[in-house]
Amino acid sequence: MESFIGLTIFVTLVAILLLVLASCLYVVKQQTVAIVERFGKYQRTATAGIQFKFPFGIDRIAARIQLRVLQNDMIVETKTNDNVFVTMNVATQYRVDEQNVTDAYYKLMRPEEQIKSYIEDALRSSVPKLTLDELFEKKDEIALEVQRQVAEEMSTYGYIIVKTLITRVDPDSEVKQSMNEINAAQRKRVAAQELANADKIKIVTAAEAEAEKDRLHGVGIAEQRKAIVDGLADSIQELRDANISLDEEQIMSILLTNQYLDTLNQFAEKGNQAIFLPNSPQAIDDIRTQILSALKVK
User: Quick check: 236 and 251 in contact, CB under 8 A?
Assistant: First the structure.
C-alpha cells in the first residue's frame, strides 16, 4: 500500500514537473518575434526558435508580431485642381522594423488604420495641386512623394513603408464619359485631316500626271511634225538629184498630196468607218493650197 501511494506521488510530481516545464517553453516561428512581459512590464523580445519563460504568470507572451511585408489596400476620394472628384485605389506595403519592435507594439494601437490616415492626409494635400490630366501623368511621382512623407512619420513608430502604389485613378462617371467623347472627337478630326490630305495628294498627283501627259503629247506632235518636214526635205532633194524638170512648188504639191493620202489610209486602218471630207471635186487641190499657204506664212 505504501509503495502504491509512493508511486502515485512520484507520478504526480513528474506530471506537475512536465506541466511546469511545458509552460516554461514556447516556440517562435520564423519571421516572427514575441513580446515577453514580466508582471505586466516589457521584459524582452524573443526571436525565432525554442524560448524559455518563467511559469505561473511571471512571464507572459504579450504579442507575436509579424516581420514579413504586409499590404494595406484603401480607397481615397479627393479633388483635383480643376474641380474633378476622383477615387484612387492605393496599396501600401509596410513591415515592422526589427530594430524597433517595441515601439511598433506599444506606441500604435491600430497600425493599419493609422497608416491609412497618414496616406489619406498626404494624398489630399498633394492631388489638389494637379489637374486631372496631370494626375494621370504624375501618379507615380505622387506615390513616391506620399511614400516619403508617410515613411518619415511611421519610422518614429517602428514601421517601415516599403512601397506605396496608386493602382487606379477613377474620375466621376460623367467626367469619364466626357473625356471619352473628347478623345473620340479628336480622333475623328485627325482622321478627317488625314483623309483630306490623302485626297489632296490624289488630286495633285492626277494633275501632275495630266500635265506630264500633255507635255509628252506636245513633244510627240512636235517630233512628228519635224519628222514630216525632214521627210519632205529629203524627198525634194531626191527629186532634184533625179533631174526631174519640176519647180519647187510642184514638187511640194506632189509630196503634200501623197502625205495627205497616207494620212487617210492610216486613219482608215485604225477602224474608223466614217471620214468627213470636202465634197467638191477640187478638194485635194484646195487642201494642198491651204497647206502651202500655211507653210509660206511660217
Answer: yes
Q: Quick check: 25 and 51 in contact, CB under 8 A? A: yes
Q: Dig out the grid coordinates for 102 from the structure.
A: 517595441
Cα separations in angstroms, 162 against 72, 74, 103, 207? 12, 16, 18, 67
The residue behind cell 516589457 is: 42
Over residues 193-216, the pLDDT tens digits come to 888 888 889 888 888 888 888 788
- Amino acid letter, 149: Q
Is the pLDDT higher at 102 or at 294?
A: 102
Q: What is the pLDDT of residue 298?
A: 44
Give the mean pLDDT of 113-130. 89
Helix (H, G, I), strand (E, B) or coil at 229: helix
DSSP 245: -
Q: Determine the distance from the C-alpha atom of residue 168 to the mean position of all C-alpha atoms in its chain, rounded to a whole number.
A: 18
Q: How many CA atoms lie within 13 A of 153 on its CB side?
A: 15
pLDDT per residue over 75-108, tens digit each?
988 888 888 888 899 999 999 998 889 998 998 8
Cell representation of residue 237? 532633194
Q: Provide the residue type at 133 as one letter.
A: D
Query: Hey, is 198 helix, strand or coil?
Result: helix
What are the C-alpha distances in Å from 39 to residues 35, 36, 55, 58, 66?
Answer: 13, 10, 11, 6, 24
Nearest by Cα to 41 from 100, 98, 106: 106
Taking Cα atoms as reference points, which of 168, 132, 125 lies closest to residue 149?
125
Closest CA to 107 of 46, 35, 59: 35
What span, in angstroms and rounded, lies between the C-alpha atoms of 241 and 246? 12
- Phi, psi of 84, deg, nearest 5: -110, 125
In tens, the pLDDT along 238-265 reads 766 666 555 666 666 666 666 666 666 6
